[in-house]
Amino acid sequence: MPQEPLQIEDLGESPAGQRVLRLDGPIIISNFFEFQSTLRADTSRVLILDLTHVPYVDSAGIGALVGAYVSREKNKRGLILAGTPQRVRNTMQVTHVEQFFRFYDTLEAAQAAA
After folding, report:
1. Residue 108, exposed/middle/buried by CB under 10 A (0-12, 13-18, 19+)?
2. Which CATH number goes with the domain that contains 77?
3. How many C-alpha atoms does 52 have within 13 Å on its Cβ side?
4. How far apart are CA 52 and CA 67, in angstroms?
5. 97 lies in a domain?
């Protein structure tokens, strides 16, 4: 079965230091390293991940998100998740990592809150 690709669109950084990455596709082991590298390379004050088009994540995807949270907290930078589908939220609840993240229903709401 072919793996679905993850496309990462960088919408750029605002003057207020917010960077938005719009993701399209699952966050899974086959695209984990590219996703993780993108997150690690970001130095913005606040990183907003638009997950509206992420149908599911596996344990590697959860690990990448938690790793980004830990790294950004350590360096006093924020991480916000926008448009997170219920299936992804359910996976985060089952793995007990949901409490680490700030969630907003839309990208616009996340940008306003940041």
Report:
1. exposed
2. 3.30.750.24
3. 15
4. 20
5. yes
Instruction: Write a three-state SS string for the chain.
Output: CCCCCCEEEEEEECCCCEEEEEEECCECHHHHHHHHHHHHHCCCCEEEEEEEECCCECHHHHHHHHHHHHHHHHCCCEEEEECCCHHHHHHHHHCCCHHHCEEECCHHHHHHHC
Instruction: Kindly report the pTM of this predicted structure.
Output: 0.93
Say if CB 80 and CB 102 are below 8 A apart. Answer: yes
**Which stretches in the chain have pLDDT values below 50?**
1
Q: Provide the residue range defining the domain that includes 55.
A: 7-113
Could you tell me if 68 and 27 are in contact, meaning their C-beta atoms sit under 8 angstroms apart? no
Read off the tokens for 104. 């907003």
The pLDDT of residue 16 is 85
Instruction: Give domain status of residue 62, yes or no.
Output: yes
For strands 102-104 and 78-82, give the pairing.
parallel
Structurally, the chain folds into a number of domains equal to 1
50 inside domain: yes
